[in-house]
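for the record, two folds in this file. i put them one after another cuz i was lazy. first one right below, seq on top, structure tokens after. the second one comes after a little note so u can tell where it starts
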Amino acid sequence: MTENDAFWDFYWESHLQPMENLGKRAAILSVSALIRRLAEQTSQPLRLLELGCGEGQVIGTLLEAHLQVCSLPGSLGVDYNAQFLAQCRRDYSGLRCIEGDFTDPVLLDGLGKFDIVLLVNALHEVFSDCYSPELGQIDIPAAKLRVEQALAAAADRLEPGGWLVLFDGLEPAGDPLAMVRIRFRDHGVRQDFDTFVAEYQPLKITYRQVEGPLSVELPWRDFTRYITKSIFLGKRLWESERLQSYQYFKEGEYRAAFERRGLKIADLQTLTVNEEKWRNLVDIDTPGVSFPDEHILILAHRDDPNL
């Protein structure tokens, strides 16, 4: 480990302590290392674009840390939520942010090009917006097409040689309808599960009762959504989170989508978020089954034809 690495390890350990979302933490750490590497290869300040920036935690935190090598006026956050953007402007003075739908091609075409484009917990909202009242759940084929279109539009904002960073949900490997038996540690956890099943909108959650009130069997797909979403139960965010599915693509689908856009994946990590918490609440009784990797982090670049 170099002295520089040791400094950044210490810096992020202290600056990211308040950040509960481990996914955002993983994304920030990876992009920080990428920024430092790119800064050694160019004398020009790096321009960052975050699509679906929310309150600006990711892009704002990165720009604060790397102001010497990043362009604050040349960087930009985009989000459709005016309230989130107002908070972003309060927390990260000087960061440019605009209100709008990042799936709108007209809006994107006017943004220019960037060295790094960030999609952190953004594309699952595109997927979830394809809820069909007629189906009573998300129209999955239409939703996946919209996700791929949004990914393509984001990739078009890259300079030659630029990088796209994605952090989002992952549909885990295996048969999505394979049944998993779980056992709740107490009746309070079971009650939260029942609330989740009743209020979660994107897909119909199914299960069957086995061996008393604390044991159920449910499809692998539904179990994954349960452990990624029910952490918001009882919190202010539940009203919006219950309307969204983090999961939409399996790893192979992500790889294929990136390849179709001419993006070369340099780093891909799959992550289990909040596993320690879940081990204290739920036991998995199906032999050979453990908590899934339900999130993915991808760093991919577009070749520079001039090199």
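(here's the note) second protein begins now
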Amino acid sequence: MNGFRILALGAATLAVGLALAQPPGGQQAASPAADPVPTTRVPQSYAPELVAAGSTIFAAQCGFCHGRDARGGAGGADLARSELVAEDVRGDRIGEVVRSGRTDAGMPAFPGLAASDLNAIVAFIHDQTRLAQSEEGGRQSVDVADILSGDAERGRAYFEDNCTSCHSAEGDLAGVAGRFQGLRLLQRMLYPQPGAGPNAARTQSTVAVSLRDGRTVSGTLVFRDEFALALRDAEGRYRSFATSEIEFEIDNPLAAHIEQLSRYTDEDMHDVVTYLHTLR
């Protein structure tokens, strides 16, 4: 390890993980949710009762692949972004696919599906497309209630056992639920960003570099990978070094959050964020 002595995992660990998640060439794969919803050729409306019936039938017959909301699932397409659905007029195209299937794409045929059930499925799919077209952006919203599925008292106990060496419900986190809610609060809890917010200076990683000639250089960590390290010193100067030529120590104030990710269960996460929502 070239004599490296690293005090904390630091930002580079996250950078490596993000790099591994990128496709070749460094280009981030576009999410299907970023695709626009095609314009429906013939606008259609359906009775709420028919749409509700279609929701139940669709979930039972099609939800495993296409998702319960028809927005995509385990190998099935997002039907709200389907050109075929956009061209469909009251089932003239959807019905044909459902009856015949698409064996090349792994979709089975449903030749015995009752006409009334098929009509309900068509109504549900078109209604989901209508909802998708009315949403801002390409992603579905996440309600606060979707996040607050945990137990606040269990969350308090977990917080007191694991988080109070750095945080206080009466100190830095007092009123946090008034500033952040739902998904945003959960994201900040799991992945706090260095250099952000009122405590920006406290969350920046610092690094001390030992050069071969015996000199030392220290400052705020700017960049690090397996080949190079860069910092900004107290005078604001940008300094970079080849990691093979130095020894260094990194102190990352957010290391505990990174380590905590491997300990949280899904229940723990929701318990803690539900507790944090009580800090108003």
